[in-house]
């Protein structure tokens, strides 16, 4: 099988970790862009990338590039592709368009004009046409216009890859699964210690943390990928790729804990851990973080998504101060990471973060921050270290 170019879309700030994921999987010619990473691989690798990448939102397969200056050049460019290679008159399709251009300012117009070009080609050739299906199309087409360059791609994934298939229940402000996985990787989580999410909500961090620790492909529970409806779909090859990934699953020798004070969140988190077949690794309890203390020996890795005040009505100043106090007093030997969309609220934590990373949670600019809680005081730690040198 020959290699071809693909593009993996991701969130801002995840480009480097996605590139590293691709290199580890065996991708060729990996190049980072903005919110995307391009790479080369064959059909089997396309299946593998969709199953195994934690920080990709979609995998696109570019099939044509051409210059566009107006609607005529767009129409002609779309007509220059032989669409009968990818579609029959009895199938359905859908077009997504993303536009960064002065010539075009409406993505829906671009999608409509492109649809006309495809339909007209089929009518001329076959006196019949494929239909548009917004929910379950047989082929998803992606159009990206940057200035005067139009790239037409086939969407290999279908629905965004954050739809892992395990999360049937969510709470009021759930975190996107790809965002959760990226945050865990940025935090250095690899399964080498105990893990705690003290405000676990519907349990997304818990499940993603367990999948990373056990090297479980994140989309192994997913119902379908777009490429399964393609003319060249190879079910045997997909099964072989799936089997090879499943053979690489490892055991995990620590515990993953989740707390939440809301009984409804606890029920949802337990359901989602069960759906992901990971309940043996994940322990979920109804507890108020501010009334807890570290209960495990050795290092503890903590990652969580506290309320921002955007959707939940809380006293932010008091809440963030209590977070800082709880970490400082009750959690020695802990690396605590959390994401917040309220940068102002960080000053109430009362601790100095050792790292700050700019991310986006949806359209909201956010910060991922790290607080290091030492065993004893920081000064004592360094005194001990220096006396041993």
TrEMBL record:
| Key words of the record | Methyltransferase, RNA-binding, Transferase
Q: Which InterPro entries match?
A: DNA_methylase_N6_adenine_CS, RlmKL-like_Mtase, RlmL_1st, SAM-dependent_MTases_sf, THUMP_dom
Q: Does the keyword Transferase apply?
A: yes
Domain THUMP intervals = 45-156
CDD domains documented for this protein: THUMP_AdoMetMT
Q: What is this protein called?
A: THUMP domain-containing protein
């Amino acid at each position: 099988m020959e290699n071809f170019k693909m593009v993996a879309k991701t969130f801002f700030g995840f480009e480097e970790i996605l590139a590293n994921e691709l290199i580890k999987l065996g991708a060729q010619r990996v190049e980072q862009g903005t919110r995307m990473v391009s790479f080369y691989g064959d059909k089997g690798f396309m299946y593998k990338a969709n199953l195994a990448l934690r920080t990709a939102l979609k995998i696109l397969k570019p099939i044509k590039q051409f210059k566009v200056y107006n609607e005529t050049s767009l129409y002609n460019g779309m007509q220059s592709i032989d669409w009968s290679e990818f579609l029959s008159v009895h199938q359905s399709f859908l077009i997504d368009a993303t536009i960064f251009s002065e010539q075009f300012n409406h993505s829906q117009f671009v999608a409509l004009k492109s649809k006309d070009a495809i339909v007209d080609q089929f009518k001329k050739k076959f006196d019949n046409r494929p239909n548009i299906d917004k929910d379950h199309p047989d082929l998803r087409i992606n159009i990206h216009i940057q200035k005067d360059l139009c790239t037409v791609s086939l969407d290999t994934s279908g629905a965004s890859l954050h739809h892992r298939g395990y999360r049937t229940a969510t709470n009021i402000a759930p975190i996107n699964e790809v965002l959760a996985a990226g945050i865990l990787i940025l935090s250095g989580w690899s399964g080498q210690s105990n893990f705690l999410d003290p405000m676990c909500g519907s349990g997304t961090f818990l499940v993603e943390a367990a999948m990373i620790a056990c090297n479980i492909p994140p989309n192994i529970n997913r119902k379908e990928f777009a490429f399964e409806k393609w003319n060249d779909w190879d079910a045997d090859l997909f099964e072989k790729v799936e089997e090879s990934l499943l053979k690489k699953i490892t055991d995990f020798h620590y515990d993953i804990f989740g707390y939440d004070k809301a009984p409804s969140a606890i029920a949802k988190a337990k359901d989602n851990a069960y759906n992901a077949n990971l309940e043996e690794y994940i322990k979920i309890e109804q507890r108020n973080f501010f009334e807890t203390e570290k209960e495990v020996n050795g290092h503890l890795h903590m990652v969580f998504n506290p309320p921002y005040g955007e959707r939940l009505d809380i006293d932010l100043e008091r809440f963030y101060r209590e977070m800082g106090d709880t970490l400082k007093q009750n959690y020695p030997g802990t690396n605590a990471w959390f994401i917040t969309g309220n940068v102002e609220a960080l000053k109430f934590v009362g601790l100095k973060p050792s790292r700050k990373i700019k991310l986006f949670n949806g359209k909201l600019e956010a910060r991922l921050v790290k607080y290091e809680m030492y065993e004893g005081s920081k000064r004592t730690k360094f005194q001990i270290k220096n006396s041993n040198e």
